[in-house]
TrEMBL record:
Domain of life: Bacteria
Descriptive protein name: Protein phosphatase 2C
SMART domains registered for this protein in UniProt: PP2C_SIG, PP2Cc
Annotated ranges, domain PPM-type phosphatase: 1-182
Coiled coil segments of this chain: none
Xref: InterPro entries: PPM-type-like_dom_sf, PPM-type_phosphatase-like_dom
Entry-linked SUPFAM superfamilies: PP2C-like
Length: 184
């Protein structure tokens, strides 16, 4: 995806980011074809591409993006991506017996149904963004996510606090965290 991390016009953000995710999926497909023992390998993904205040976010699976908006004192932290779990994608999932609590979509090299969701957003001064894997979001309660974003004085402090919280909560999964503070 790195080759797609370049300056683009704001209107092109969703197209370029979608191409980046498709290129990553295609590269995975080629790798699996070259090494069949890797069949079944896959990953979730959350990615961001920015042009000025315009942002496009891509997600596949249960890696997430959160936004803290409205200032650190009184702002709210909102999940701005949707998890691709069966229980979130099936209408009235609570009424469906034995519905698996598994990923319905992830990057795995296949061509069917692996397209990312693309979310567009306009950044405002003071916004704080969090991109993370489920190793964080599955183990750290929302109020702790908010607190780390709202009260940290640097992105590194926020990252360190969030990772420590996930590990303290017993998170056995990988914990990947990116925090972005938008300047005033």
């Amino acid at each position: 995806m790195r080759q797609y991390d370049q300056a683009v016009e704001p209107g092109a953000l969703p197209v370029v980011l979608g191409q980046a995710v498709n290129a990553a999926n295609h590269a995975l497909r080629q790798r699996i074809e070259a090494e069949p023992s890797l069949a079944g390998m896959g990953t979730t993904l959350v990615a961001m591409l920015r042009a000025g205040t315009a942002v496009a976010l891509a997600n596949v699976g249960d890696s997430r993006a959160y936004l803290l908006r409205g200032g650190q004192q009184h702002g709210q932290t909102t999940q701005i991506t949707e998890d691709h779990l069966y229980k979130h994608l099936v209408a009235e999932a609570a009424n469906v017996p034995h519905l698996p609590d598994r990923l319905a979509r992830f990057v795995d090299g296949r061509q069917d149904g692996r397209a990312p969701d693309i979310t567009l957003l306009t950044l405002a001064p003071g916004d704080r963004l969090l991109l993370c894997t489920d190793g964080l979001s599955s183990y750290v309660p929302h109020d702790l996510l908010h607190s780390a974003l709202a009260t940290s004085t640097s992105t590194q402090e926020a990252v360190d606090r969030l990772i420590a919280s996930a590990l303290d909560q017993g998170g056995p999964d990988n914990v990947t965290v990116v925090v972005i503070f938008v300047g005033q």
